[in-house]
Give the backbone structure.
Amino acid sequence: MAHAEFALRVLAFILITVLIARAYWRLAVRILRWCRVRIPKSVLAVISGLLGIITLFVLLWVYVYHGFGYQPDIYRVGNRSSNKVAITFDDGPSREFTPAILDILKEYEVPATFFMVGSHVEKYPEIARRVVEEGHAVGSHTQNHRNLPTLSTIELQKELMEATAAITEVTGVYPSFVRPPRGMYDDRFRRMANLLGQEIVLWSISTRDWRYGVTASYIERLVESRVRGGDIILFHDSGALLRNEGGDRRATVMALPRVIEIIRAKGLEIVPLAELLHDAPGEAFPQIDRPE
């Protein structure tokens, strides 16, 4: 049953892409016919397919950063009228990079939130405990960092419950926040987070420190050009592009001191995530016009 549900979800993504590509194909055929231009069908198929894939990625970007419909249970940003921002780290803890990040945060007296992968917490319990001991908040980032919408319901529940149990057992703190890997969520995840009493937190600025070859100066420039009051800034202290860990996060460590200085130079205050979120206005309920 689990494999069937997984296959159906993957098939749904493929089907959506095909339908979008087909829409582009039909539109292109009409335009070319009207313009009396001939293009080989093979070329048109490739172009339509590429446009379908690009459109799907654009829709996914909107879905992560803005959402569709009424989503009062998902935080993406704090109060824009405040001077407060929050710093978050995903995918840890890491034996190589998390301690260095904690040293910097301690030196600059900056609070942060670490969205931890349950299997990494079990692998590096002493580092997970240090995060809490030094006053930082913790959130769940699932047990194995899998794409949640493609999982069966049973597997999704296990990802969330096992991570919550591991973090609580090791650190002694119940994770009150949860962030889906890569920002990919669905209604099942939202319902499960609500049942677990965990607030769903995404982000408004990604430093893109997960990219291969990223430099500290790039991260610094990105933050300097975009940061403003209410932002939730995303960094990574572990992870990799295709694996749970093993990525190079030296640029993150190198950039962090300067990023903190940049934020403060703009008159912004780095606060705990809970303070930023609970100072944020809730999403207004949509107005619905009904005929008398």
Remarks:
- Residues 287-292 have pLDDT under 50 and may be disordered.
- The first strand starts at residue 74 and ends at 75.
